[in-house]
Amino acid sequence: MSNRTKDITLDIVEAVRDVLRRHEVTFDEYRAGFQHLAKTQGAGEIPLLIDVFFNSTIVEIENEKRRGSHACIQGPYFVQNAPNVAETLAIRDQDAGHPKMVMRGKVTGLNGQPVAGAVIDVWHATPDGKYSGIHDNIPPQYYRGKITTAADGSYECRSILPVPYQIPNAGPTGELLETYMQWHSWRPAHIHYWIHADGMRDLISQAYFEGDQYIDDDCCNGGGSEFMVPEVYEGDVRVMEVNFTLDPRAEAGSEKAA
Ligand code: MBD
Ligand code: FE
């Protein structure tokens, strides 16, 4: 284990001890607290709980080091090995009547040079707020895919429109947010992106829909996105134009040790 792991772990422990002392936490409260964590683990919601509170901080740290497009929270529902898609993400038969969108834009480097052959993983929720491969046994090929940019850095792919999204709130994470913290469990409607390109730093981001009431009131403290897409239509298809600027990959050896 690196010293970094040791140092961070010791600091986390000390930070938590500080809170326990400051609030003079009792045996009963201590047990109730860790039992809630155990319940969260039992419900498979540890990734959700941790992302709700802490992913946004990792994003802040990451964005200090970026000159191109900024990162956004990734969330717990990325799935590896999504299918390569050409024109449209797979749409469930039951969602076929839902309003449509086209995602398009360009991937460039810091000097505006097109990035050809970049692979953009996109993923978004179903109209009923579920993620394929995670919830309700929805097969993982729906509403996910890898799009590859053309020679001029452009990409285009269709799907249905995501809607304002409530994180799973029937379990311990929802109970914590809504009952114990008197908050809510909503996020703005969003599309997730994870871009990989040779010689470039990966970019994990999201696009939001301009005017969405949860952009500034996001239960994950997402802090918005530089990609707030205005309401533009081609016929009855909403156009989600998002252009990404990638930073070059850091020099070998300059990344922090694992
Ligand atoms: C999500 O869909 C999401 O995007 C985030 C950041 C957290 C929980 C669920
Ligand atoms: Fe999400």
TrEMBL record:
<keyword id="KW-0479">Metal-binding</keyword>
<dbReference type="InterPro" id="IPR050770">
    <property type="entry name" value="Intradiol_RC_Dioxygenase"/>
</dbReference>
<dbReference type="GO" id="GO:0009712">
    <property type="term" value="P:catechol-containing compound metabolic process"/>
</dbReference>
<keyword id="KW-0408">Iron</keyword>
<dbReference type="InterPro" id="IPR015889">
    <property type="entry name" value="Intradiol_dOase_core"/>
</dbReference>
<dbReference type="Pfam" id="PF04444">
    <property type="entry name" value="Dioxygenase_N"/>
</dbReference>
<dbReference type="InterPro" id="IPR007535">
    <property type="entry name" value="Catechol_dOase_N"/>
</dbReference>
<dbReference type="Pfam" id="PF00775">
    <property type="entry name" value="Dioxygenase_C"/>
</dbReference>
<dbReference type="GO" id="GO:0008199">
    <property type="term" value="F:ferric iron binding"/>
</dbReference>
<comment type="similarity">
    <text>Belongs to the intradiol ring-cleavage dioxygenase family.</text>
</comment>
<keyword id="KW-0058">Aromatic hydrocarbons catabolism</keyword>
<keyword id="KW-0560">Oxidoreductase</keyword>
<keyword id="KW-0223">Dioxygenase</keyword>
<protein>
    <recommendedName>
        <fullName>Chlorocatechol 1,2-dioxygenase</fullName>
    </recommendedName>
</protein>
<dbReference type="InterPro" id="IPR000627">
    <property type="entry name" value="Intradiol_dOase_C"/>
</dbReference>
<dbReference type="InterPro" id="IPR012817">
    <property type="entry name" value="Chlorcchol_dOase"/>
</dbReference>
<feature type="domain" description="Intradiol ring-cleavage dioxygenases">
    <location>
        <begin position="103"/>
        <end position="131"/>
    </location>
</feature>
<dbReference type="GO" id="GO:0018576">
    <property type="term" value="F:catechol 1,2-dioxygenase activity"/>
</dbReference>
